[in-house]
Amino acid sequence: MNAQAAVTSITLPRLRHWPWLVLALITLAIVFIPLPIGFGVPGTYDVRISASQYEFNPGTIRVNQGDQVTIELASTDVVHGLYMDSYDLEITADPGQAATLSFIADKSGTFRFRCSVTCGPLHPFMIGKLNVGNNTLLWRGLALAVLATAVGLWRFRQ
Amino acid sequence: MTRYDLTRIPIAKALLVNRWPQFLVRALALIGFLFAIVAGLGGTPVGSRNFSIVFVWIAWWALLILVAVPLLGRGWCTVCPIPMPGEWLQNRALLGPRGKKPPFGLGRKWPRALRNIWVQNGAFALMALFSAVVLTQPGVTAVLLASFLFLAFGASLIFERRAFCRYMCPVGGFIGLYSQTAPIEVRVRDTAVCAGHTTKTCYTGSEDGFGCPWGVFPGGLVKNTYCGACLECLRTCPLDNIAINIRPVGADLSQPRGRKLDEAFKAFIMLGSAFVYSAVMLGPWGQLKTTAYAIGSLPWLLYVLVFLAFVFVFLPGLFYLSTRVGQLLAPAGRSLPRPFTAYAYALVPLGLAAWIAFSLSFVLTNASYILPVLSDPLGWGWDLLGTAGYSWTPFFTQTIPVAQTLVLVVGLAWAGITARRIAQEGNHPAAWRQAIPNNLFCLLVTVGFLWLFVG
User: Which of B224, B252, B280 is the last residue of a domain?
Assistant: First the structure.
């Protein structure tokens, strides 16, 4: 076996796997590269949320990361609650008696808030959304989805 | 592809062949099923405090879609209690065969025109239209469960074998479709052995077991879809030719034989239903929820129209267009027969991923209702286990969106791999281009789900 053949026999198997290495690196980059979490300046954000069977109004709230958020929950029919996912905060409002919740929106992303008091048949589905800064999970998810599709198409050509 | 036959483990085979383990699980499931009907009719109308809602739509559903279907395929059908009473009467036996008694009932064959899953497709779509009420009203859930029981019973008196399971059950329809992805299968070890076996006891039955309740000849099995994993063939085969294989996931999806339009539409119905369910139940749109709940009202009729158009026209139509565009991209690669039907099988892993992602949110945020209901299943103020006062606690709310994203991306990648394998059946170097638009269709659907789940 001459020297060139020996080199070929050693390097070819490594070359065969480089696309997977690149794929792994791109995946890691998508998952871990820090993304801007928003350009808004933290301040105060006060919002009155009206709760009625089976809707929060407004259903979606957008704040900057670091905002001091104050939610006034006002029920217009029966007793409703508001539980904020990830922040693990909860308040309850009787009809005609608004309840207030204050917190610093220090976690970025989109979080669901849910009614925490059984208020009728559709109670488990009474849900709202809190957007804090940029929704980096969504952007990472979209990038991974595009990558998955590209990998599928690339694999067609093998 | 490599497979490992579980029946080669003596204790595993003994447990599978013995009727008692399966019977005991089914009997327990039957008790739970009947209790769910009783609780739904006689218990509190508050769904989150009633056994029928919490144990059927949270506990059972979680086990089914997060564990049983992805890992065991038809595993639920193996222990499903719904056909039991009808089978007892039909077989004139509670456990195994007793002599050569003829089956009880008319024993008619299922109509030839309906030997497909269109009835199951229609039944699931019908159930989905009423889902907002079914999932939240204990009484309605009870009526639905009871109707399953009566239909299965009636079908076993009129038709031979398990006609309800094979042709009517809306749950069994989608379990069959998604069981193609499972890493387990019932197959024969050697088809030549079956060909040479003249009595075909796996189909006709013997003193060791009943003829295939699903009307399937195991020697011809190439997919999980219509095998109910009831294990009867394992008991009746005198030649020890039945295997329970552990296999690569999704092995059936690249099997060209047996692809049918009714199964393709099942994939669209499931994918579309997951999308609508996610929008209605997990979205912030209260008006949509009340519309889906207001059965019989004008807005609900509009909802029905939109739902049916989305599931039966829009999604298949868009997919058909993408398939046609694919054919234009690769005119030379048109040798794949019925490409619309063939490529629709790429939607099976994507649909399963969408249902898992939907269920993760629905189940984990409501699973804490299980504990109080264990203590007070009828909502009558009991505290049998001391857990009645356990308050609602959503689990893993920080992790759920990440898990949903990963599940969807894996489903999309799996769909792409499946489409690639299907395209390669075209046996032409340019055939891969055919699948580009279909892959983009899958990407579009995934983006929609991501927006609903984490947007």
Answer: B252
Which tokens in the block code for residue B376? 């007070």
Q: Which has the higher per-residue pLDDT, A7 or A150?
A: A150
Counting the structural domains of chain B, the total is: 2
Boundaries of every domain in chain A:
44-137
B247 and B358 belong to one structural domain: no
Q: Which of B453, B346, B347 is nearest to B403 (CA)?
A: B453
Bridge partners, residue A95, by sequence: A75
Estimate the crossing angle of helix B436-454 against helix A136-156, to 10 degrees: 160
Residues sharing a CB contact under 8 Å with residue B295, sequence separation 6 or more, in sequence order: B130, B133
Q: Do A137 and B454 touch (CB under 8 A)?
A: yes
pLDDT band at B337 (very low <50, low <70, confident <90, very high): confident
Topology, domain A44-137: Immunoglobulin-like (2.60.40)
Q: Which residues in chain A have Cβ-Cβ distances shorter than 8 Å to B397? A: 85-86, 88, 111-112
- The span from the CA of B272 to the CA of B291, in Å, is 18
- What ipTM describes this predicted complex? 0.89
Query: CA-based angle B161:B109:B159, to the nearest 5?
Result: 50
Structure tokens at B385: 């286990």
How distant, in Å, are the alpha carbons of A157, B183, B324, B341 from that of B347? 21, 18, 17, 11
The answer to whether residues B307 and B363 belong to one domain is: yes
Over the stretch B52-64, which tens digit does the pLDDT of each residue have?
Answer: 999 999 999 999 9
Domain span at residue B234 reads: 4-252
Q: Which of B252, B275, B304 is the last residue of a domain?
A: B252
Cβ neighbours of B447 in A, within 8 Å: 142, 145
Q: Give yes or no: residues B213 and B276 share one domain.
A: no
pLDDT in tens, B295-311: 999 999 999 999 999 99
Domain shared by B178 and B281, yes or no:
no
Nearest-CA distance A92 → chain B (Å)? 13
Nearest to A142 among B413, B420, B447 (CB): B447
Which pLDDT score is estimated for B420?
84
Q: A97-129 as b/e, with b when 16 or more CB fall inside 10 Å?
A: ebbebeeebeebbbbbbbbbbbbbbbbbbbbbb
**Amino acid identity, position B20:** W
Backbone phi, then psi, for B4, in 5-degree steps? Answer: -125, 125
**A92 within 8 A of A81, measured Cβ to Cβ:** yes
Q: What percent of chain A has pLDDT over 90?
A: 73
Same domain, B113 and B167: yes
Secondary structure of residue A69 in the 3-state scheme: strand
- The whole-angstrom separation of Cα B275 and Cα B289 is 14
Contacts of B398 in chain A (CB under 8 A): 85-86
Say if residue B231 is in the same domain as residue B320: no
Say yes or no: B293 contacts chain A, CB-CB below 8 A: yes
B329-368 in b/e burial notation, b at 16+ Cβ within 10 A?
ebeebeebeebbbbbbbbbbbbbbbbbbbbbbbbbbbbbb
